Amino acid sequence: MVLCVKFVKILNSQKMMTSNFLTNFINSILCDPAYSPDPDTYLGVIWEVYDISTLHPIHDPDTNPFEHPFEVAYLHITGQIKELFQNQIMSELIESRENRINQIYSFIRRMKITNHIFRYINKHRHTFIHKTVACKVAEYISNLYFGVLESNFDDLVNVAISSLNPIMIEGNQEKADFTLLESLIYLINSAAAGYKVEEYESFKLNPEKAREERWSTLYNEYVNEKIMLKLNEFFETIAKETENALPLLIPGIVDKVFNFTKKLKNIHTRNLICDILYNNVVENEIITLNNALTSKRAIDIIINKDNEYSLERKYLSSLTYHPKSLSFVQHFFSRFMDNFIEPLEKEVNIKNLGLLMLKFLDYINDFKTLAYEDIYVRETESFVSFMEKEISNKLKVAKFHQKFGGNYQVVLAFIVDAYLKRGNSFKNTVQAQHMIKLLSYAEERDIFITHHTNNLFVRTATRSTTGLTYEKTFLNKIAEFINEENLAKSYSILEAAKQEEVFNSKFSYFTIKRQLAPLKRNYPSFPLPKDYQENVEKVSAELKKKHPNYEYEWLHYLGTANLKLQTEKGISYLTTSVAQVSVLNSLIKVKKIPFSDLASLVGIDQAFLEVIIRTLSNAKLVILEGGEKGKINTNTIIFNNKYHMPKAIITDNWTPKVIKVRNLDLQRSKCAQAAIVRIMKQNRMMKTQQLMEIVINELSRLFPITINDIQSCIRELISDEYLEEKEDSHLAYRE
């Protein structure tokens, strides 16, 4: 109804209803390449022609299939355009064949505009036009295109192909023009979309079959036999003529072809064009191209997300239309991994390392998108499987900086630690799902879990964690990959952190079993504040009375203190480490002191003291004066007496300790035995083969394990009388 109202408004407009309006519209379509009618103009034309068509009597459907006024309206427009077009291209003024062909291509572009009119009619056909009428109009358009195609095809192909000469012969990528080839394919697709008048009855019975038959005829006759043969000859010729310059031209050529093929609706045409390009151009230069695209410069482009990255992405994507290109893309990806890992191995800053890994994940996603969207469906699964295996293998042998243990699993634990610490250094750039995805590429996840558990303890003990809720959520996500039984120690730490034993309002602590504490506990020592030391001695005496057989170890390095700080600006309530309290107490007394003198005053190792001062400086509690920039040990340290923050947490984000996991094979053997015993306890009796499959399925998510490893564990458990062999290859659990 909205359309009707608009029609009425247009009908009442003297401007739109002038007698020469339709003639001007048609001439503009035909003669002005820049002409682009607005929707109101379309509606005005439709209504004016409808008004004209109502003057004609309704035709007898037996003698003329077009009986609806809007059919007459559309035919009136297209008929006049065709007539004017034919008058122009047959005119004696157009002497050259090329000019005539260019007029045909101009006609094709103009017909695209007239199709907008048909779409307006078809969109509202329930009100103005019946579905069968829309089909008849589509038939008319198709036949119109078909006639132009049949009578001018050879010339159309030659002109379209020659329009590619600049990029091939002259090496000028800017002048390369695919628009004529696009128009030709558009003409073929449009001609194939309809049917001939004599096919109308069969079309009504089975439209899909009729279209398929029509397309098959056109596809074989025009696309396969003519266009593709011409393209094939063209690429063969160009490949010989530009042998030396070809590697430099290929990225530009492929970029043009990629953009062109993406516009083609018919996948057969698209694949054929890419096939020809691949066989005649790319395959001969595969080594040169591969070296160019996997160079250090190309990797830098990808890592830094420069604009040239999109060209290489398109280049790869366009090649993957051809099934033979799968091996090329696999080789490209393998080379890319080698070059990408190189900067990772050299990086010593955990934040930079984490962000590089994030860019790595982005690029992996690009490759997966490429696989799902562009590679043949039958190859997609094998390509993605190859990627996952290649990533794991490359990361497994990578030599990361010794600061991070040199091992991917340990590096990942460092990145996760930075992610889960208060103040998250990645500023929400890195998300939990990124961490889990990186974990999926680690084969020895038990090493990651050992370091993650150690770091988890330090974060919770020092209150430097983002929060216990976040820690628990992240552990649960890990548990989706690794059986929760293997995360028991991590979960126990979180539970222990909640069970604080309060001695008085000024001092609190929590105790955990020694086996849950960090494996490496040679922390720096420092003088303890007097009141803190007194509380420790008092609590130690109480604990000794309560549990005389227990031995307690105080980890002062991980201690947290609540501090009430008075400055010129007011009172601040701070949560700090015990070591920070020692330093602040000395600074408040002296106000200003060289770093070396402060180290002597507080009795703290200089490397440890540098970390504390850097943290206090970042929190604006101290001011660094003089010395060399970035070298705290050359600065003079000044207490900031104007500091004020109602409430703040100032936690030293210590670099996690690298743990050397000893007797790894023995630990894994015991882990496997524990899993076997647990499963057998639940089932009492099982087939040996079934048990081994369950254990491998569970433990392979934690570390690499083989059937032979499981068999060895079973034999040891039988020897230790945990299991008993039964008939028919069964095992039973012994109480």
Automatic annotation (TrEMBL):
Residues 378-617 form the Cullin family profile domain. It comes from Tritrichomonas foetus. Belongs to the cullin family. InterPro entries: Cullin, Cullin_homology, Cullin_homology_sf, Cullin_neddylation_domain, WH-like_DNA-bd_sf, WH_DNA-bd_sf. PROSITE patterns: CULLIN_2. Signal peptide: none annotated. It comes from the Eukaryota. This is Cullin family profile domain-containing protein. It holds the Pfam family Cullin_Nedd8.
